[in-house]
Amino acid sequence: MPYFSGGGWKLSQKQQEVSAVTGLNDAKDFELGEANLSKSELDNIEVAINNYNEYKDILSKRMKYKEDSILLSLDNSCVPTLERKYLISDYYELEFPKVGKSNYIDNIIALYRSAVVSSDSIMRIKKNIGWKCNDLYIKELINVGLLGNSILQVKVMAPSKEDCSNIMSVVDDIISEATGEINRSFNYDFDYLSESYSEEYNEEITKNKKFLVDDILAIENSIAGIPANMSEKEKSIYFQLITDKVEEPIKSSPMKKFVLGIIVGSFLALFVLIANYVISDRLKTTNELISVFKCPVLEVIDDPKREFGNDLFGKFDKKLDEFLYHRKSYNDTLSLSASRIKLGIGESSNVLLTNSYDSVCNDNPVIDLVARVKNLASSSEDFAVEYVNRVIKNTMEIEKIGNMDCAVIIERLGESRYEDINKTIELLKKSRIELLGAVVIR
Hints:
single chain, 18% strand, flat
């Protein structure tokens, strides 16, 4: 126990050792009781406190990044993105005395990248847009890279189109200034090509958000596990030392601890499920096809095998969609889907049915829908139907789409990935195939 001696409160020898470990030195506020700690116990407490402080420091940095990062604050399903392209040509140099050429394109791109993200450049950008933030948060918004063999690609992401334009105007000035400097080292021609603006799904932001949430959860679990192998006496002192105010340890019965563990574990499991659901890169609701991909939904088919959903969020998705669509029987939705596809096709057209997710051979809704549409085609002879499973990956059959006039994509909630849906739609656009809409399986 601390004791009073003439000049005031004093620490016992053991408490002085703990004080040396923790930095606490106020004896009156540092009543550890008659702990009678051994050297081994002091070492265990020291290691635990050091680990706690390190984890808390890392956690604090992660939480600050999560709160302050401009990139992570963007809605990853619809990111304002401004892109500029510049053509770099005649960048080969003849090598002497041997006959040959040296390709310096990677060096040129690296110099442009360094110029754009330098401290001076970031300062100019911050001044132009009026933001007061860490330089890192500006650098994250700008991507400078090589597209193909000779195109300098600059992408800027920001909260709004205006912010993108303000950042890009400074970046363009920096690139113009850097061109003269880089040309002194490498001879090449440099020309502006194009500029485009879009608001699109960004997979990298989705992955970064998920990684950060997982990282924070892992650190919190590590902190919670620090005292796992400590004795009750060591735990008592450890918990006193990591709190701002020393409190008497709460003595709980085994049953109370068991019940508390179940409650805390349940909440933690629910939190992990919700976090994974929110940042998942898979299609959650039919409305996302309309709002994110601007793709009309022709019909929703309930998979008979998943009538009641396999999990909590499957049921949640169905309840959410019931606000938008009336639930119909399986056969009715197949017939309606086929009829709506036929209505959208028009006369004498070839229609492609495809999906972005990997449909297996026993995927009955896809098999039944394709069969239903082909039956309509054979009976009317007004159009032809071709089905290609996952056209973005099926290189063996990709030539089939060359004769197609229009297409319908078949997507499944919880399986279709945003990135694959986007790639499928982009492939159809490039092939000049009209997208009639989507049939969704849930």
